[in-house]
């Protein structure tokens, strides 16, 4: 019997666009640290698992997508790292002349600031670029049209914050955005149960810069505001935003817990999947 539960997702909001003080592009150094920490592992994955024989004698480009690309330079750094790693593999095999073209799709929610993204495209990029708006939980591409898929820091989290005295308590109680940190073993079990992918590698990614990047309360507040402002504004209105994040900043400043690296138990997983035939 068909499951009658809907698969519709709540309305999704992209991080803050533009290049202002609360924008994602100005407050995403933490995510850049993740990109930099993953570079060596991505290079290794491409060297060991990317099959260049697929493109021998073919004029088709290598098609890849960055799911949840957001704005700013991080997505361009990631894509360039991948392109360079693939080119390096061709050179190591002595087939420089056969290096294909690269077509990169940049994906994010429909509310994403694609204008800022494409205005920021590197002028000397080594790939063709296209935007694909929409949730990656939906079907965005034809079957077997992608050769490589990348996603980093795209499944974000949110903790409820009681805005005492600013809004009605009922609104706070109804503000329920799921936050879920999946254990590594459970993630492995879900991938295996899905059956469409094989796990080639799964390990903790060491973002050594994260405590340096978010070492002050104000930086942490800006980091969260860049990502979550749209969701909060939709539910509570924009009148509370400045006061909310000011209070959050003071809350962090008054706590020895938040800024102590020893209390940070959050981990980032590097997961390499290969689609099963």
From TrEMBL:
Pfam families: Methyltransf_7. InterPro entries: MeTrfase_7, SAM-dependent_MTases_sf. Residues 1-10 have a biased composition (Basic and acidic residues). Residues 1-21 are annotated as: Disordered. GO terms for molecular function: methyltransferase activity. This is Uncharacterized protein. It comes from Quercus rubra (Northern red oak). The lineage of its organism: Eukaryota, Viridiplantae, Streptophyta, Embryophyta, Tracheophyta.
């Amino acid at each position: 019997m068909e499951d009658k539960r809907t698969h519709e997702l709540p309305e999704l909001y992209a991080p803050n666009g533009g290049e202002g003080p609360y924008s994602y592009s100005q407050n995403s150094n933490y995510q850049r640290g993740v990109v930099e920490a993953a570079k060596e592992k991505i290079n290794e994955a491409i060297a060991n698992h990317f099959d260049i024989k697929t493109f021998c004698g073919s004029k088709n480009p290598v098609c890849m997508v960055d799911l949840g690309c957001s704005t700013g330079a991080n997505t361009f750094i990631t894509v360039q790292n991948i392109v360079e790693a693939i080119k390096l593999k061709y050179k190591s095999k002595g087939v420089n002349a056969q290096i294909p073209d690269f077509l990169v799709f940049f994906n994010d929610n429909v509310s994403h600031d694609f204008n800022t993204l494409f205005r920021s495209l590197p002028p000397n990029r080594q790939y063709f670029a296209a935007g694909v708006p929409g949730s990656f939980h939906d079907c965005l591409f034809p079957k077997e049209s992608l050769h490589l898929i990348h996603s980093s820091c795209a499944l974000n989290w949110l903790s409820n914050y009681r805005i005492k005295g600013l809004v009605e308590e009922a609104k706070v109680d109804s503000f329920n955005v799921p936050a879920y940190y999946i254990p590594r073993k459970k993630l492995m079990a879900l991938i295996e149960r899905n059956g469409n992918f094989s796990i080639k590698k799964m390990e903790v990614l060491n973002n050594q810069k994260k405590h340096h990047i978010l070492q002050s309360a104000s930086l942490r507040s800006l980091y969260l505001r860049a990502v979550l402002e749209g969701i909060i504004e939709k539910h509570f209105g924009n009148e509370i935003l400045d006061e909310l994040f000011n209070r959050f900043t003071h809350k962090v400043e008054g706590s020895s817990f938040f800024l102590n690296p020893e209390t940070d138990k959050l981990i980032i997983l590097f997961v390499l999947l290969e689609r099963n035939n």
